[in-house]
Amino acid sequence: MRQEQRFLLAITLMILVLVGTNILFPPIPPEEVVGPEGDAPGQLDGTGVTGVPSAPLGGTDAAGDQSSDPFAGPPPTEPSSLFPPVEVVATPAEDTVVVEGPLYRYSWSTLGARLISAQLLAFESFDEGQEGQPVELISAGTSGVLAMQLRLGERTFDLGARSFEVEPVDGLRLNEGGGPRTLTFRYRDPAGLIFQTAYTFDPSSYDILVRTEVVGPDVDLLVTGMGSGLGYNESSRSEEATVMGYAWNHVRDGVDDERHAQVDSPRIQEGPHRWAALKSKYFIFALIPGREGSEEYLGGVIARPYEGPAPVEGNLPEPEWWQFWAPRDPVTPHEIAVTQSLDASGVLDYRVYLGPQERDVLVAFENDLEEANPYGYRWMRPIVRPVVSVALSILNFLHRNLNVGYGWAIIIFGVMMRVLLWPLNQKAMRAQMRNMAVQPLLKEIQTKYKDQPEKLQKEMMKLYKEHGFNPLGGCLPMLLPFPVLITLFFVFRNTIQLRGEGFLWLPNLAGADPLYILPVLLGLSMFLLMSISARSMPPNPQMKMMRWIMPIFMAAIFFRFASGLNLYYAVTNLATLPQSFLIAKERQQVRDKGPIMQPHKSGD
Fold first, then answer.
1. Tens digits of per-residue pLDDT, 210-247?
2. What are the phi and psi torsion angles at 484 (to 5°)?
């Protein structure tokens, strides 16, 4: 069972307990009915691609002689075949060119102008064996990304095995505060084809501007390889594999995605698309057509089983003893590519983003790129999105303006939530007591008019109106924190700012508590809240059993959740204790004194 499923199960059970307490197991009313008025306690241009290249978009295993015609050779025997043949060439020598700046270190191969390493210097990898090293976005054991192929009709010219000239030959070193610089790759074919790609890097941004120019034959399509998925960089590969995938934003149909594990046969997502991206838990590799503000589109997004060397991460490690819900099936090796149409000019402008999923940065692209790795399931996103925006804004505001770490920001946020909900909890508690007081009168009416259905209905509605009876009135206000709790579950799973953020004994607020202190504290705080409430309520065997089972069950459910989420939930429980004492005391006084119930007033 995945973390999302376990979390939703826990939320469902908590809601059932709240609702069930008010409906299924109402407390036994006092002998003299109660009735103080008040409140109670209790979130790609539409180019249809009929064929895609058959060779891996890295081409390093190809062998043979170069042809004088880059598109020479017989046409495919089956023009509608998904994978038309490509020309086979000899593998020349390979050099590596490095582009290094304050944020990243990119390594490019002159063989195919492929990006073979993309390290993010500001982020540490937590993958086993890579601890302390910068995050690496290119999967180990693969031939790299951004290898290209040209399409002319049904013929394909693979550039992934061609030797490129590079300028400057020593690569680039970008200085903080300096201006953008350009790295250019150029290939000249004996038949007259000239292919050139220029990458422009900004030392302060992960956004790379790209211009590709083709001189020679009239080429229909440029096919760009995006590789076989981003590299693993979290402590639990099994858990990270559940979010590894690729996504696209269709002009008409919007954003959609697919997990890598589902790519077991060739498939094409027809364009036009605003972007295509590979994603991991916290990082993203996106290809965006055009320059800033342009209206250009990608063509098809192609996924197929990977034909090159199997990635090191192709098979997931056996889960730990506590990961009984983790996926055990191997991830199918695969490859993702995108197409772009070339017009008569032979020039294409596009952008490459290789970096963290910082929501503010992705929102600035103004093409819904932030939705490549969305918060929550599709059916809950209309509710989760606005709450995510508010919750992140508050956490970032507290972090920046109070100059405190995110751990303290979470604690302050949790206390703020309980303070804001204090009046609603009071209202829920008093509504619950009012409902308890109505029960004897309701029973009396049901007995008196049991043989007069119409009269019974009329008298019941009159009673409900006079005393503000609402069977859910005692629990609805108490359900309001759940949208926030649900939202924070996805925030702590997807928000890059919390990744690697330490707090007290916690090395990573986005990871599990290594000492399991917070899950235990969460369970104890829940037990205290339920015990305090039970003392002022009439005996109920079902709720007594639930008081012991629920805290243990919730601690087990939250056992491996993000420690930031555990911290928030435990803090809100502890911050609720003072109000729980006051509510329990008021409820006990009502039971002891048993005042005569007064009619309900509007606004209570």
1. 999 998 877 888 999 998 888 888 887 877 887 888 99
2. -70, -45
